[in-house]
Amino acid sequence: MTTVGLLGAGGIAGAHIAGWLQLGVDVVVHSLRGAPELVARHGGRLATSLDDLLASCDVVDVCTPTYTHRAMVEAAAAAGCDVVCEKPLALTVEDTEAMIRACEEAGVTLYPAHVVRFFPEYTALHDAVAGGTLGTVAVQRYDRQGGLPVSPWFHDEKLSGGIVMDLMLHDIDFARWNGGPVASLRAVRSAPDPSGTVAAQVVLTHASGSVSSIGGIWSARPVDFRTRFEVAGTGGVLRHDSATNPATWTNGGAAAGADGYAPKVAALGESPYLTELREFLAALRGGPQPRVSAADGLEAVRLAEAAQRSLALDTVVTLEEAR
Amino acid sequence: MKVALMSFAHTHALGYARLLAAMPDVELLTSDPDSATRPAGESGGAALAAELGVDYVATYDELLAWGPDAVVVCSENTRHRTHVEAAAAAGAAVLCEKPLATSVADATAMVAACEAAGVPLMVAFPVRFSPAFADLRDQYQAGTLGRVHAITGTNNGQVPAARAWFTDPTLAGGGAMTDHTVHLVDMVDTLLGGVPAVRVHATANKLLHPDSAVETAGIVTVTYADGTNLTIDCSWSRPASHSIWGGLTLSVVSDAGLIDVDPFAARVSGWSQIEANELSLGYGPNLDETLLATFLDAVRTGSTPQPDGHVGIRTTAIVEAAYRSWHEGRTVEVALAGRPASAVV
């Protein structure tokens, strides 16, 4: 039986442990905080220490804060474990390349948990693009809006990378998946506000000439989590808005923003986190390559890092410069 | 009141002609001499006037000699300056189809010509008259929304097919960035109360229509002097076979919430068995009618209608900067003639 060692017990760990347990694997958890509560809520068992966890598992699932990813992945690789790592893989290209190198040298596999690629509406869009339904893609638009992250480390750019690296990396990765390599980009962001509200926009010009506009919002005002996209090509246009396509809508339900930081997945039929982990597990057991690779994770970090540079310098950044 | 309509080149002329012809206190006279230069099969001239049931003369000289109180200019974009200057010289108030001009130099000259002639100049930006948008602006200016952190907008449509000049750079000045950036920058101009734009970035392509001589898709980002960023998708990305031409949306990140305004959402929708197509019954005020009424009221009362020629200069400056940014692959400063951006911050 496969044993998965889950590192971290925050929000994303809850989604992952539920997925792993549904896949019937043995789960052992270690975290500086919250591990007993996580196991009590979902199941699995507790490791006594990081070393205990690394010694007893086949796969390590890194769900710790971003700034710890490199150390956790390198420890997992050194212990000979395959690795699933929450996005972003790391805060910098340098760290991400070091993680990939450590895994290669240890002969273990590294998968980045870019879960948006597994959300069914995004999968439907990508399949249509890949299958030629939209012809040549010319314009992609993505929006992702939610409440402020709860854990304080998200608000420290040095620890989380801020909204571009943490939130918008999803759509940056997805736009690159559909639109191909990026030639240049430019990013803008709202001025710092005491409330914590931040809105940013990243505009990609792909090597194909197609363009992508990616918006991200962390709102201090309580809001429901919402995503939308529109992609236009020579063959037509596809769009989706989670606010106007809800499978369930409750008028007078819970106050907006009560859990407005993350998408609600219960009404999707299967949690995209489960879909994602099943695909990773099958690949680790010799099945087909999953739809996202460590190289994709590296390119997403490279683009987000370039966007941070564009913000800092208020310039267009070409990806030849960033490489 | 005597109102002259110069040119049927812009397809909005047809709607204006119908609305003006229906106004009881308006005498309408039209002229469309350049129709002879249009490709075969495009409507225009005396035949179109007859179809619309409006009076027609063969030349602009005759049209202006008629002594109109007001002139509506609906010619090709790069001909706006000549026609606006002629109308001003004839002493008529001017409503010019958007964009006012295709260069800041032309727009500035047009404003100067109208000021010298003592006639008002208004630019046809009807979407700012949408009740949904007006309500947003009123709320923001009353302080109800708190701070605006960011704005995004979409103005997508089909590639203009009824008139070839829209995709002819010598007549249109450009493609989707020329056609579909200005409505949203006009709306943000009035929303923010005239805060000047200082920097622009743009990227564009013609992947949807590779044979086009102009760009057919683009993303334009405008940074205003107060730090607000506006990102616009100006693409002609609506499939040509679509049942609805396109639309415009404006999204605002505010302290009071994340607000989406869709002026064209006021419609009853369904499906027609007979047409085998979507049914879409728009309701609410006709924005072109509100635009014309605002213009004609100003002519009657001698006041300055908004959006005026200075809004036209500011919107033209943003589009001009967008092309410079796209061609140079960098973020550029917005140059306002005689008024550097830094001086008005």
UniProtKB/TrEMBL annotation, chain A:
Residues 4-113 form the Gfo/Idh/MocA-like oxidoreductase N-terminal domain. Pfam families: GFO_IDH_MocA (PF01408), GFO_IDH_MocA_C3 (PF22725). One of its GO terms (molecular function) is nucleotide binding. The keyword Cytoplasm does not apply. Residues 123-238 form the GFO/IDH/MocA-like oxidoreductase domain. This is Dehydrogenase. Coiled coil: none annotated. Keywords: NAD. InterPro entries: Gfo/Idh/MocA-like_OxRdtase_N, Gfo/Idh/MocA_Oxidoreductases, GFO_IDH_MocA-like_dom, NAD(P)-bd_dom_sf.
UniProtKB/TrEMBL annotation, chain B:
Residues 133-257 form the GFO/IDH/MocA-like oxidoreductase domain. It comes from the Bacteria. Gene3D superfamilies: Dihydrodipicolinate Reductase, domain 2, NAD(P)-binding Rossmann-like Domain. Transmembrane segments: none annotated. InterPro entries: Gfo/Idh/MocA-like_OxRdtase_N, Gfo/Idh/MocA_Oxidoreductases, GFO_IDH_MocA-like_dom, NAD(P)-bd_dom_sf. Keywords: NAD. GO terms for molecular function: nucleotide binding. Residues 45-125 form the Gfo/Idh/MocA-like oxidoreductase N-terminal domain. This is Dehydrogenase. It comes from Promicromonospora soli. The lineage of its organism: Bacteria, Bacillati, Actinomycetota, Actinomycetes, Micrococcales.
